[in-house]
Design goal:
This protein is of the alpha+beta class. The chain is built from seven helices and eleven strands. The N and C termini lie far apart (89 Å).
Length: 249
């Protein structure tokens, strides 16, 4: 019997190779999923402890937000953008300093990476997953003066309030950047500036190709979402720094 099965399998394989098969028609139907459908109780009972544990973790109050943080309000900067850039720089810098004995100069993130608001009131871990549902990590790149200028020109051309910390500049009447300061000092030609961003952007995401021209690259292995969670755990009330980063003549 075993030999017969092997022989039959061999015949079928050879038949298929001699006469190729093609898909002539695909049929399907829509099956709607709704709350009215009954779940399988065994599966529900198995999942419930895990679901309850996750829900408890996400619902834990970590801090208090004194005002609603919203990316839709602001021409060149928003309160949530400034907040995220500030805490990313604040939390990443000690790690980079310990590992590389260097300080981070700038944080630059993308406006589109902020997915929702942080409402006024109690802040939970769930808020962090809603604001940043992606698995992006903090990454530090070393850039020369030319790439810092590319970042600035990108901001001006995009006309979006991308999260920015550590750098300020003014947009002149002829749409050119002036009065550029990094950590309060003018740009230096031969200096390497360390910029913390996301791994997605460091690879050229959102057309930020200037990050790929880096002279150094350091993965902090620190998720941006975890940066938020750690900051929330460290403070009682969120510190919202609305200092002006970009001005226009």
């Amino acid at each position: 019997m075993k030999h017969f099965v092997l022989l039959l399998t061999f015949i079928l394989i050879n038949a298929c190779s001699s006469y190729p098969l093609f898909v002539s028609k695909v049929e399907g139907k829509k099956i709607s999923i709704s709350d009215e459908q009954n779940g399988i109780s065994e599966i529900e009972n198995y999942i419930k402890p895990y679901r309850d544990h996750i829900d408890k973790y996400l619902s834990e109050v970590l801090a208090y937000c004194p005002e609603t943080l919203d990316k839709s309000k602001g021409e060149w900067q928003t309160n949530i953008g400034c907040f995220l850039a500030d805490i990313t720089l604040e939390k990443s810098d000690p790690i980079f300093l310990q590992r590389e004995h260097k300080s981070i100069d700038i944080c630059f993130l993308n406006h589109g990476g902020i997915r929702t608001i942080i409402p006024k009131g109690n802040v939970t871990a769930r808020n962090t997953y809603e604001v940043m549902p992606f698995e992006n990590s903090a990454l530090v790149v070393g850039l020369k003066q030319e790439q810092i200028m590319e970042i600035i020109n990108y901001i001006i051309s995009e006309k979006k309030p991308h999260p920015l910390a550590g750098m300020t500049f003014t947009i002149s009447k002829d749409n050119q950047p002036i009065n550029i300061l990094v950590q309060g000092k003018p740009l230096e030609k031969d200096k390497i500036y360390y910029v913390v961003t996301s791994d997605y952007l460091s690879n050229g995401g959102d057309n930020m190709t200037f990050f790929k021209k880096n002279v150094e690259r350091h993965d902090l292995d620190y998720k941006l979402r975890n940066i938020m969670i750690d900051y929330f755990k460290d403070v009682d009330t969120l510190k919202i720094n609305n200092n002006i980063r970009i001005t226009k003549e």
